[in-house]
UniProtKB/TrEMBL annotation:
GO terms for biological process: antibiotic biosynthetic process; monocarboxylic acid biosynthetic process. InterPro entries: AB_hydrolase_fold (IPR029058), Polyketide_trans_af380 (IPR051411). It comes from Penicillium roqueforti (strain FM164). PANTHER family: SUPERFAMILY HYDROLASE, PUTATIVE (AFU_ORTHOLOGUE AFUA_2G16580)-RELATED. It comes from the Eukaryota. Belongs to the polyketide transferase af380 family. This is Genomic scaffold, ProqFM164S01.
Length: 256
């Protein structure tokens, strides 16, 4: 069984709190390969990242999980803000932290980003969680709400928040795509529920998300190979398909 160290590190001046999972038989005199694992939108490290860490440490990796800025135990105001540029910086800061550890080989550090932490949140905000679900009118409404939220914050009032998914499976409207129910089945049940992750995001996140393009520099991945896995029936499979199309390198796309 792997042991766990609670750690913290800075990301653009914001203190992030994380956990380092050590592999069985750990020796401080060995330099291990490492993986930093980012949690999904509105999530915390104790959810999916801890699950992945417990598996990867068995393969000999040191794993770093962390609460992103504005989430969980990490600092940052307003709470529950979803800023994809900051999230990317959080991952880079985590890589820096791992690189400075004496038990990590800085030339063998990888990143595992779960769901929206690794997807193009900009396209999701502009077009909808499921392809074709959104559009210009919905985007305009989201940006208008974000502008109003900024004014509310400037007046010193409580920052408005919005739910990321239905509070229960039963509350999901019939017209919602299956993924909405799947999110509720995980994040709103004992399977994945956590007291630090109420499933909310700051309403003023919308314009930050809409302006972000996670795949703009995918061409720089080359000549490194790229391998992606997506569920054959996943509602968000098109995120991975877009990423593969924009990466002119040796690549493989697996469907499970």
């Amino acid at each position: 069984m792997s042991s766990v160290q609670k750690v913290d590190f800075l990301s653009t001046g914001i203190k992030l709190v994380g956990d380092v999972f050590l592999p069985p038989g750990y020796s401080s005199n060995t330099k291990y390969p490492a993986v930093i694992i980012a949690h999904p939108m509105t999530g915390v490290r104790e959810q999916a990242p801890h699950v992945y860490s417990k598996v990867l440490t068995l393969a000999g990796f040191i794993c770093l999980t962390f609460d992103a800025a504005y989430q969980g135990e990490s600092e940052g105001q307003p709470r529950y803000l979803e800023d994809p540029a900051q999230r990317a910086e959080d991952v880079r800061a985590g890589v820096t932290y791992l690189s400075l550890r004496k038990d990590v080989d800085p030339e063998r550090i990888g990143a595992l980003v779960a769901t929206v932490s690794g997807a193009c949140t900009g396209r999701m905000t502009r077009e909808g969680l499921v392809e074709g679900m959104g559009g210009p009118e919905m985007l305009q409404q989201s940006i208008k709400a974000a502008n109003e939220a900024r004014l509310t914050e400037a007046k010193g009032q409580q920052d408005p928040v919005s739910p990321a998914f239905p509070p229960t499976v039963q509350d999901a409207p019939p017209e919602y795509p299956p993924i909405a129910k799947e999110l509720a089945e995980y994040y709103k049940t004992p399977r994945g529920q956590h007291e630090c992750a109420p499933g909310l995001f700051a309403t003023r996140s919308a314009d930050l998300l809409a302006n972000f393009d996670a795949y703009a520099f995918n061409y720089l991945i080359s000549p490194r190979p790229l391998f992606m896995i997506a569920g054959a029936d996943a509602s968000t499979k098109y995120y991975s398909e877009d990423a593969m199309t924009s990466a002119p390198c040796s690549k493989s796309f697996g469907r499970r």
